[in-house]
Amino acid sequence: MSEATGGIEMEEDSSGKIKKFLYVNRKAPYGTIYALESLEVVLITAAFDQDVSLAFIDDGVYQVVKGQHTKGIDVKNFSPTYRALEGYDIEKLYVEKESMETRGLKESDFIVPVKVISAQEMGDLMLTQDVILSF
Amino acid sequence: MMKFGILVNEGPYTHQASDTAYLFAKAAIEKGHKIHRVFFYHDGVYNSSRLTEPPTDDRHIVNRWQKLGKDHHIDLVVCVAAALRRGIKDENLLEGFRISGLGQLVESGIQSDRLVVFGD
């Protein structure tokens, strides 16, 4: 997704500081643009060599569900991008168990390998982070 | 003294997010903290349009950000990808704001003590 930078050359932080960034995705993939634009920030953060994790809670769990078909709403299906994250060394993806189960989903429904953790564990994970961006 | 970065994810007037972010920034400055950058993303980019004309008896959210930025040397950055999607360009950008890449948001997260997100 090269358009994420809008073609502007990035001024990478030269301090070499590595922080833990957690992206909290709370909204369904379509209906609003939050999920797509969140993913754009995630990809940029990887370019800055930061320690990136993604969390999916509430309707955000639908972002990583397999078999998305968006032709009928004339919106680009961007879910394959989640599979490309591995290539950016982004491999820490967490799905909140309660959100998943409330929506009748199971671990095999996801397009990428995710770690399913409880709301309590999600809270503990957040405590270990330096920067939390919620979309 | 803490160094804050701020992320505004909603446009003016529809959501309270931009108002709350502004009031937070103002309060933090009054307490002696530093706001080094405000990054406008998603519909938040509309907070920079110089075409904004609210009724005269209402707060002017866009001009208010401009003044705060000027008075306290805050870097007001509008995301280029989000802006182009929504028709915000240099032509209609208010003076005091600048358009740049998402890297500026990540950098703000790295350099500030806290990055505070205001959104829906």
Helices, strands, pairings?
The complex is a heterodimer of chains A (about 140) and B (about 120).
Chain A (H helix, E strand, L loop, with lengths): L19 E6 L8 H14 L3 E6 L23 H5 L7 E5 H6 L12 E3 L1 H9 L3 E4 L1
Parallel strand pairs in A: 1-2, 1-5, 2-3, 3-4
Chain B lengths: L2 E6 L8 H14 L3 E7 L20 H12 L2 E5 H6 L11 E4 L2 H9 L2 E5 L2
Parallel strand pairs in B: 1-2, 1-5, 2-3, 3-4
Description:
The complex is a heterodimer of chains A (135) and B (120). With 135 residues, chain A is of the alpha/beta class. Helix content of chain A is 25%, strand content 18%. Chain A contains four helices and five strands; from the N terminus they run βαβαβαβαβ. Chain A has helices at residues 34-47, 80-84, 97-102, 119-127, and strands at residues 20-25, 51-56, 92-96, 115-117, 131-134. Chain A has a five-stranded parallel β-sheet with strand order 4-3-2-1-5. In chain A, β2, α2 (80-84) and β3 (92-96) form a beta-alpha-beta unit. The longest helix of chain A has 14 residues, at 34-47. The two termini of chain A are 19 Å apart. The model of chain A is unreliable at 1-10 (pLDDT under 50). With 120 residues, chain B is of the alpha/beta class. Chain B has one domain (3-118): DsrEFH-like (Hypothetical Protein Ychn, Chain: A). In chain B, strands 4-3-2-1-5 form a five-stranded parallel β-sheet, sandwiched between helices. In chain B, α1 (17-30) packs parallel to α2 (61-72). The longest helix of chain B has 14 residues, at 17-30. Chain B is globular, with a radius of gyration of 13 Å. Chain B starts with a strand and ends with a strand. At the A-B interface, α1 and β5 of A face α3 and α4 of B.
